[in-house]
Amino acid sequence: MSHTLPRTPCSIVPPHLLMRLAARQDARFAVAADAARRALRELDPLRQAREESLRAPVRRPSAVVGTLTRRIHDAGGREVLPGALVRGEGGAATGDPSADEAYDGLGSTYRLFSEEYGRSSIDGAGMDLAATVHYGTAYDNAFWDGERMVFGDGDGEIFGRFTASLTVIGHELTHGVTQYSTNLEYQGQSGALNESLSDVFGVLVEQRALGQDAAAASWLVGAGLFTAAVQGVALRSLAAPGTAYDDDVLGRDPQPATMADYVETASDNGGVHINSGIPNHAFYLAATALGGRAWEGAGRIWYDAVLGGSIPTDCDFPTFAAATTAAAGARFGATGREAGAVADAWSAVGVLP
Amino acid sequence: MRIEITRSGGVGGMTRTWSLEVSRAEAEERWLPLAEAEAGPGKGMQDAGPPDPARDRFTYRITVGYTEVSVPESRLGEPWRELIERAREAGRARPAPGPGEGSGPTTAAGDGTPEELL
């Protein structure tokens, strides 16, 4: 196994990456850590600020110390946003499971991006995290409206309340991260990648909160949302796309795991929630091949790719596969097992960069 | 006249279909003009202006006879909501479909007096 520093000028490496590298105690990373410490000494604040202002704001990784500011609103069963404020940052628990699950879930999601990836909130600049619960009557959905997460109570027949799944909360918030980073178009393959990033970081939020390594995790999105009447365990499975449910009313989980089963459809913005199964499964294969904590290995690589600047808004699967493979090489070494695992994962799902 | 409503999208990405029968008079007075207005210039998906930043919202495809329109949830007005609620209610009033009928209840419901099937 070999680990080499990316051969790039120090000024291009974001300060938070340098800080993480500099803090490494592992002997295998001694050279990298020394180089990062030198680079940090050379970075004067003025130069740092200038570089940040030159970068597109949407791509900017955070060098700002993050503060978590959550605001939970209650729509009271109406389809009106934002609704009444029921819990602000540091406020006491409300006793309403939806409001308190949303509050806790926003915190878990914030901490993944902040503590692992150095990103301050969804925009990288400390934006408040807002959620509305009890949206609509018997409303069977959770969505991102461009500014906030919105959660329905479910109809009680198929779905219960949507805040019950931490992966769904992480999924919705990651739509915000994507909006402020790659801004992937919500159509076809770029839309499926947008969806997949939300699923990937949604499951990583839960895995990190539960302290689960890749082998122990369920790799399910939306487990626990269905009522007992539904034949199914979750909305989607990254481990086995197409197997999350098979129900009389809902039909069968339509997700493909490989390009051989790619679904061409006009509905769902060209199947953004369907073909996301392919990049989802590639992530699962890479993460389980690497083992350990998925948010530190494959998750870090995917996040590096998101911020790396090589993902256009109309990105297709092969371009994304190339970006993640390159990101694995840049962080862990081009001949390291990480880059190999990522390349193998894309190959296994039939996506060739 | 048969009206079919297919909802796609949502965080679950599950497609649901509901349908109901309405009288030809009701379809011509209420639903066909609405569908034609929705399909007309300035209202279609291709004329949507700046991209909508919303994610995981529903899209409804509503078919009235031979006229089909696609309406994003964010533009769903009160008449359509009433129609969707009636179709869902009609679905609930019917017995559950047997195994293998994957896309949900789609059989016609006794909602209004059907004068003619299209």
Automatic annotation (TrEMBL), chain A:
InterPro entries hit by this protein:
Metalloprotease_M4, Peptidase_M4, Peptidase_M4/M1_CTD_sf, Peptidase_M4_C_domain, Peptidase_M4_domain
Q: Which GO terms describe its cellular component?
A: extracellular region
* Boundaries of every Peptidase M4 C-terminal domain copy: 183-351
- Residue intervals passing through the bilayer: none
Query: What does this protein need as cofactor?
Result: Zn(2+)
Ranges for domain Peptidase M4 come to 98-179
Keyword DNA-binding carried by entry: no
Keywords in alphabetical order: Hydrolase, Metal-binding, Metalloprotease, Protease, Secreted, Zinc
The Gene Ontology biological process annotation of the record reads: proteolysis
Active site located where? 172, 273
Query: EC?
Result: 3.4.24.-
By sequence similarity, the record places it as follows: Belongs to the peptidase M4 family.
Function, as annotated: Extracellular zinc metalloprotease.
Q: What is this protein called?
A: Neutral metalloproteinase
* Native source organism of the sequence: Arthrobacter pityocampae
Automatic annotation (TrEMBL), chain B:
Basic and acidic residues bias: where? 82-92
From what superkingdom does this record's organism come?
Bacteria
Q: Which InterPro entries match?
A: Emfourin (IPR049457)
Stretches the record annotates as Disordered: 36-56, 82-118
Q: Which Pfam families match?
A: Emfourin (PF20242)
Name of the protein in its database record: Metalloprotease
Organismal lineage: Bacteria, Bacillati, Actinomycetota, Actinomycetes, Micrococcales
